[in-house]
Automatic annotation (TrEMBL):
Biological process (GO), any one: peptidoglycan biosynthetic process
Organism listed in the record: Proteiniclasticum sediminis
Chain segments carrying region Pyrophosphorylase: 1-228
Protein's name according to its UniProt entry: Bifunctional protein GlmU
Compartments where found: Cytoplasm
Entry EC number(s): 2.7.7.23, 2.3.1.157
Start and end residues of each Mannose-1-phosphate guanyltransferase C-terminal domain: 264-353
NCBIfam families (UniProt xref): glmU, PRK14354.1
Cofactor annotation: Mg(2+)
Amino acid sequence: MGNYALILAAGEGKRMKSETSKVLHQVCGKEMVNHVIDIMRKSGIQDVNVIVGNGKEQVIEKTKSRDVSYSVQEEQLGTGHAVLCAKAFLEGKVGTVAIFTGDAPLIQESTVASMLKNHAEGGFSATLLTSVIENPTGYGRIQREGEEVARIIEHKDCSPEELLLKEVNAGMYLFDVEELLASLQMLKNNNAQKEYYLTDVIEIMRGKGLKVGAVITEFDETRGVNTRVHLAEAEAIMRRRINTFHMENGVTLVDPQSTYIGADVVIGQDTVIYPNNLLEGKTVLGKRVTLYPNSRIVDSQIADDVTVTSSVILESAVGKKTSVGPFAYIRPQSVIGEEVKVGDFVEIKKSTIGNGTKISHLTYIGDAEVGEHVNFGCGTVVVNYDGKNKFKTVVEDHAFIGCNTNLIAPVTVHEGAFTAAGSTVTEDVPAGSLGIARAKQVNKEGWVQKRKESGKY
């Protein structure tokens, strides 16, 4: 006995008006189908099969990192047909299969867990997810017999009395695998669309005397995304949910409505986030971090007591008690140590910066290994690229780089060495030495007057 999942992700999504597969549009920084896959996994369902069709190459590319298998629906002949296309995945399995849609990213782990519990304890062959809404127009109604589901009635087929029913089908199900496979063989497409509907399986099971149950959840959880308007609505709901979660766990959001936090972001207690910050991907913030307005942090680890102001940090790590910004740019594969100052208009690319180092302003450091307690003067440039190759620069502990120094890689400034302001350093500077690499100043007296007299000024 096991739990399995099928994710329906074969639809074309014409109403999105996009070259991107509908299920790959992102909500809070993650593809909708990956939201659903991740919720299945969090709910304890490890064996997940994604049913692909339109744009299948795109969907496979974006989901393959989640270790799922695939079934292919070449023709779009309805939800029942889609599940039939996964017959090879289901055959030989014993247990429960969850069938969810890849364009409904708002489903929550607790709801799936409740469905699984209710399904098992009730001895049901099928369990539906439903919602109760005030205006159910257009939705299939749930007709019950006691606690069990008698049938699903499409809106167009409802009698006046049935139109008054407010419990509607969400299109998400649990089935006993063996009973599902048996019922799928009995599906017919004798309808106007000539399609095979998964909802007909419920009627087939009821006709066999099998028990069908239902779990009611909030309508917001069951929302499918079919248009860009729906996408924005789902984004707003999930963003509010994410922000509420963090605030309830000890994070201060000064203005939640203007704070954008991705679904997989982790934030420590007593962190304070000011307006217009964007946290994406697998970003992890430690405790007591302060993010002043207007920063973007992506797939990065920010340690305790860090301060960031109006800066961009991409795929990097920042150590404890470091300050970044304003207007700093930390590019991928950078590791910034503890108690470092990365000041205004500083750019760091693929470099390691040791503890206590100060890079206060107007400096570029690329492909460098920088030690501890180094001081970079204003306007320093690590010249790492010769037009063809990138080279490494090493600046050892306690070095002092004078203002407007160019370090032409490959080069090493050894421990405790200084460079004179305005130097272009092309050779290693020995430990404890002063490197001076600038032309001797020459003053040409009377030069300006002569230029004026020549008519060139």
